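Spend some time on the protein that follows and explain the fold to me:
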Amino acid sequence: MPDVYNWQLGRKMSYPFAASPAQWQFAFVFNTNRCINCQTCTMACRSTWTFSKGQENIWWNNVETKPFGGYPQNWDARLLGLLEDHNPGGQVWDASAPRTPAAPYGRFDGHTIFEAAAGYAGPDGPKAALGYLPTPAEWTSPNIYEDHARPEGANATAARMNAALPEHKVWFFYLARLCNHCTYPGCLAACPRQAVYKRPEDGIVLIDQSRCHGYQKCVEACPYKKAFFRPNTGTSEKCVGCYPRIEGKDPELSPNGEPCETRCMTSCVGKIRLQGLVRVGDDGAWVHDPHNPIYYLVRERKIALPLYPQFGTEPNGYYIPPRWVPRPYLMQMFGPGVESAIEQYSCPDRELLAVLQLFRTTQQIIFRYEIIPGPKIAEIEVSMPSGGTRTQVIYNDTVIGYNKFDREAVRITIEEPVFERPAAHANSI
């Protein structure tokens, strides 16, 4: 297999196809600290794309309660176990490896799903990626173990008495998920019909329904289990990234062809989501663009981390980790950048605080932001996860988001304005 460079692993890895970078890459950041598990995103996607016959168990977007919840059930634990069985004790990050722009999280020398499958020889023939087909039972109950907490230690009753930061003794958190539109998709690598392809204009991964014969190799190979088999059509389906909105074809939201966020993004009540497009160079790396909010959060500040980067697909979905969850659990999920990300989020500096205000403020995709300095309005003593304290100085800055055509799409201040309605109606306060 050819070698491709995976910046999330900090090294080259094997992949069935040579690198063919898109011009722009669909990407998103989810702030898990804000998710309230309202499932509005899930139902927005459901009512738009997966409401038809044969799609009863197809959920392109879902929200899971970790550590026990998952759809399909135990999808992450199953694959982590398969990789550990293949490479016992070797699925670890090299803590001594230098962190550079080309390897921001250090180096992962364990086996990816593609490398683990290289020597596979079983009754079902060779594999392009290590994976498995979930059983029908595992596809039931998309919200299984919702709000189920995990107590730390043997004495669960005593543990419930302590819920103090930086880590709760009893904890759970919500993980919103959709297709990561990976740079090196497992579904694309495994499809024997070459029905799965990655669009060069935006990096969205799609399945050509005219070529798909329903072999379910994509379902088996996707480590995030976001490819689904539809029994009544005999083909596989997956999240399409709401590509008509990305193309700016909504006549109301995009009168001038401005790219818009997907349905799940725009419906988010908790304002946990920020979606964007980042420019990709000929070498496959993201073009340096620190005023693109996605680039800023992912590459500049490294506060948003990829989900299970050790799988090797270079996912383009990123998460700000929850700050109350035990660190070992988060590190196996998001990699070794967790401590730094949580420290920054716990006491964001002036620019980071301004960028965080852009989450869910407009349906148009923000390509560039600008900050207009404002007056100092507060000093707050913050207890840090590391145990110390820090003084956060807050300024009432104004942050402006610009769309693809560099036109202003949103303008918001750090201090939320309060509008008092005149007492002219019977229900006025």
Q: What stands out?
A: The CA atoms of residues 201 and 330 lie 33 Å apart. The chain has a mean pLDDT of 93.
